[in-house]
Amino acid sequence: MNAVWTIVRVTFLQQVRNKLWLAVLLYAGIMAAASLLFGAVAADAELTVILDLGLAAAELLGLLVAAMGAVTLVLEEMESKTAYLILTRPVPRASYVVGRFLGLLGAVLGAVALMGLVHVGILMLKGWEPSASYFACYPFMALKVTVVASVALFFSLFATSQASSVSFTAFFWLLGHFGPELEFLSQKSRSVAAAAGVKAFLFVLPRLDLLTYRDLLEIPGVAAGPLLARGAAYAALYTGACLLLSATLFSRREF
Amino acid sequence: MVTSHSMNSAAVALSLENVTKVFRRSHLGRVRETVGVKDLSLRVMEGEVYGLLGLNGAGKTTVMKLLLGLLSPSAGRAEILGRSPEDPEARRAVGYLPEVPYFYRHLTAREVLVFYGRLSGLPRESLGARIEAVLKEVRLAENAHRPMREYSKGMLQRACLAQALIHDPKILFFDEPVTGLDPLGMKEMRDMMAGLHDRGKTIIFSSHNISEVERLCGRVGILVRGRMAREVDRSEWENDPGRLESIFVETVAQDPNSGLRPVMP
After folding, report:
1. Which residue of chain B is at minimal alpha-carbon distance from A254?
2. What's the mean pLDDT in B86-100?
3. Alpha-carbon distance A223 to B183, whole Å?
4. Which DSSP string do the residues of B43-62 spell out, in sequence order?
5. What is the mean pLDDT of residues B155-184?
C-alpha cells in the first residue's frame, strides 16, 4: 500500500507539471466566450445553454484528458525506461499499474472540480440559483471519467500504438452511450446467434448510459441517489475488472 | 585495486542456470525469433565483483535484465540469493544503475531519493538521514535541491548511483556505468565502485571498457553471441598488463561473425 501511495503522489505531481491545468484554462476560455456569445444572441435561454454547455464541456474535456493521459500513462514510462528503476524494486507490478492509474485519476478529477468551480462562478454571475441536481452531475461525471480512463489504460497495454489505443477507447466511449439501443437490438433480433453476440458485446462495453445523469436533469422526479449508488457500484466493478486485466497484462510484459 | 576473492566459502548471490532467452516479434503475422542468450550459466558469489564483457549485441544487458526480472527466461532459471527475480523480496536486495539515467527530470535529486527510498520500503523516520548520507557519498549534497533536468551527464550518473544505493542493497547491477563520462567522471565512478566492493557489496557490471573491468573485477565472463564463451579469473591477468584484452580478442575472434581474424598461436 505504501508503494501504491508513493506512485500515486509522483504520478499526480507529474500530471500537474505536465500542464494538465491547461485543460481548465481552455474550459474557462470556452465558457467565457460562450457566455458572451449567448448573452448577445439568446438572452432568454442564456442560462440554460450555459448550464448545459458547461456540463458537457467539463465532461468532454475531463474524458479527453483522462483517456489521453491513461493511454500514455504506462507506455511513456516504458519507452523512457523510467519504469525500469521502479520495477527493479520490491514493488509488485500490479501496485505500479494501480498507483499510476490512481495518480492520473486524482489529477484529472481535480481538474474537473476546478472546471466545475469556473462553471458555477459564471452561472452565479448570470443570476443562477444553485440546485442539488446540478451538483449531482459531478459525481456521475467522475464515475464516467474513471471508467473511460480504465478502458484506455487497458487498451494501451495490448494495442500496438497510441493511435490504436485512442481509437479503441473512442469506439468504446461512443458505443458505451448506446446501451439501451443495443439491448433493444438484441431483443428484436431474429437470429439467436446475433442476439447472443450483441448481449456479449453489451457485457464487455462500458455502460456509460448508466453514468449520464445530466441528460435527466430536466426530467422531474428523477432522484440522483439511487442512480448514483447503482452507477458507483457498476463503475467500481467495471474499473476493477479493467485494472485487473491491465495488471495481468503488465505482469507478463517484458522490458 | 580490487583483489580476487576466495569464493569457496562465499554463498551464491546471483545465478543463471542453463538460461536461454528467445525474443519473439511478430510483424504482419510473421513471427521472427532472435536468440538473446543461449544455454547460459553463471554464478556470482557474495562480495564478488563480476564483469560482463562482449561486443554490442552479445547479451550483456539481456543477462542483467534476466537477473533483475525485467525479462523472463524462455528456458532455465535465474535466481537472486536463491529466490526468483520476480519475487519482490529478492529485489529488495538489489540496486540497479542503468546505462542511461532514467529519471523524472522535473524532480530534484532529493525528491528522487525520497521516491525510490519509499518504494524500497525504507521507514519514514530513517529516510531523511539515509538520503543525506547517500547524497554526501555521491557528492551531490550541494546540488540536491536542483531539478535533474539541470544536471550534467556526470551528475545524473551520480544521482543514478544514489538511487541504487539508497536502500543499502547487498547486490549492485551496473550496466555500462562509465559510458559517456569524462576521464574525471570515470575515475570517480571507479573509486566509488571500489569503495562499495570494500564494504562487501556484490557487484555485477557490464562494460565495453576493458581497462575498467581489468581494474575492478575479480572475475570476468566473456559473452559471444549470447553464449558464455569464457570465464576469466583475475589471477590470469593480474600480473600481466593487457592480458585481459588479448584474452577477450582471442575469445571473440573465434566467432566467425565477429569480423576479427582468429589469433594464430
Report:
1. B71
2. 90
3. 72
4. EEETT-EEEEEESTTSSHHH
5. 90
Rounded CA-CA distance A161/A167 in Å is 10
What value of ipTM does the predicted structure carry?
0.85
What SS3 state is found at B239? coil
Note whether B98 contacts A6, CB cutoff 8 Å: no
Mean pLDDT for the stretch of residues A136-142: 93
φ, ψ at B17 (rounded to 5°): -120, 110
Residue-wise burial string across A95-121, b where 16 or more C-beta atoms lie within 10 A, e elsewhere: bbbbbbbbbbbbbbbbbbebbbebbee
Residue pair A13/A39 in contact (Cβ under 8 Å)? The answer is no
- Chain A: residues touching B (Cβ < 8 Å): 2-3, 6-7, 10, 14, 17, 80-82, 84-92, 254-255
Q: How far is A243 from chain B (nearest CA, A)?
A: 20
pLDDT computed for residue B109 by the predictor: 92
Is-contact A24 A111, C-beta < 8 A?
Answer: yes
Q: What is the pLDDT of residue A149?
A: 95
The three cell numbers of residue B69 are 526480472
Between CA A41 and CA A48, with CA A46 as vertex, the angle to 5 degrees is: 145
Residue A104 · residue A73 · CB < 8 Å: yes
User: Checking phi first, is residue B101 left (phi over 0); if not, alpha (psi -120 to 50) or beta?
Assistant: beta
CB contact under 8 A, A92 and B88: yes
Helix runs in chain A, H state only: 2-17, 21-41, 46-73, 75-80, 82-87, 93-125, 132-156, 162-176, 179-188, 192-204, 224-251
C-alpha cell at position A181: 439501443
- Grid cell, residue B115, equals 521516491
Interface test with B, best of A12, A78, A81, A88 (most B CBs within 10 A): A88
